[in-house]
Design goal:
The chain folds into two domains: 189 residues, Metal-dependent hydrolases (TIM Barrel, Alpha-Beta Barrel); 70 residues, DNA polymerase, domain 1, CATH 1.10.150. By secondary structure, it is of the alpha/beta class.
Length: 293
């Protein structure tokens, strides 16, 4: 019998931020997909980590603490930074995430208010923010608002929800300076990884300059295997990481929405994410004193 090599996915989202499935269901989907190791990386939120760890232990999956922070660098706004292997009860980290979560909650309530103004102008039934909050099972995100629009029949799918309402009615996110975010993750014993780089910029010269600056700040690695890079781009990111002595990780950025093109265990173009990425991460965490589940 042919034995399949081990594969991983270090970028999964649950309903604790803006995913569709609770942490336990995400873990079950990962196990069904034949993965060996996973990480839950919810936006500005670690509420699902203990639930993920418990569910993964029952199914025999390795896991690592994860979080995804919205950060800014220069004129590049809404860059995403992944943190892994940190102490998710570290006081400074918990405090910062609480501030981000409070801002996010207020932001999304304001978005719903703006959406409802548009719906009123169209003679349509308004959304109930409290019902959206309950359905979210955690921190409300724009996808939860989009799902509510689909559910009541105001739009046919998530794409239309964003185009017609969520983008025009958007309220800016609270963005964290990336240097501070890197320090916050590392002081909590974790490693910092630049998420899905193609969505930051596809200008290679600009990205290389950015990577040089972030490496000087202490950035630990980049998500070379990601939802926006095909094999050729992935190879380029691998080379750029190795040139600077940075770690390489990978993840699908799975949210589980009906029109979500991502698939658990796969980067773009159906690339599998090798276990070697998890090995690198574990070795770095061991040197730093952090850990995996």
């Amino acid at each position: 019998m042919r034995i399949m090599p081990p594969y991983i996915d270090l970028h999964l989202h649950s309903s604790c931020s803006d995913g569709s499935y609770p942490p336990e269901a995400v873990v079950a989907l990962a196990e069904k997909a034949g993965l060996t190791a996973i990480a839950l990386a919810d936006h500005d939120n670690v509420d699902g980590i203990d639930r993920m760890t418990s569910a993964a232990a029952k199914l025999g999956l390795e896991c690592v603490m994860g979080v995804e922070l919205s950060v800014v660098w220069g004129d590049l706004h809404d860059v995403h930074l992944l943190g892994y292997g940190f102490d998710h009860k570290d006081p400074a980290l918990v405090n910062e995430l609480a501030l981000a979560r409070d801002y996010r909650e207020n932001r999304n309530e304001k978005i719903v208010e703006r959406v409802n103004q548009c719906l009123a102008g169209e003679g349509k039934t308004p959304l109930c923010f409290e019902a959206i909050r309950v359905s979210a099972d955690g921190t409300v995100g724009r996808p939860h608002i989009g799902l509510a629009l689909v559910k009541v029949g105001h739009v046919k799918d998530m794409e239309e929800a964003f185009q017609r309402y969520l983008v025009p009615c958007n309220v800016e996110k609270r963005l964290f300076p990336i240097r501070d975010a890197i320090e916050l993750i590392q002081q909590a014993g974790g490693v910092s990884i630049l998420a899905h780089p193609p969505y930051i910029t596809r200008d290679r010269a600009k990205f290389s300059n950015m990577l040089d600056a972030l490496a000087d700040y202490g950035l630990d690695g980049i998500e070379a295997y990601n939802s926006g890079a095909g094999p050729t781009e992935t190879g380029w990111y691998l080379t750029e990481a190795r040139r600077r002595g940075l770690l390489v990780t990978g993840g699908s950025d799975f949210h589980g929405h009906e029109d979500d093109a991502s698939r658990i265990g796969f980067a773009a173009c159906q690339q599998r994410i090798p276990y070697s990425c998890f090995t690198e991460l574990k070795e770095c965490l061991a040197r730093r004193g952090g850990g995996t589940g």
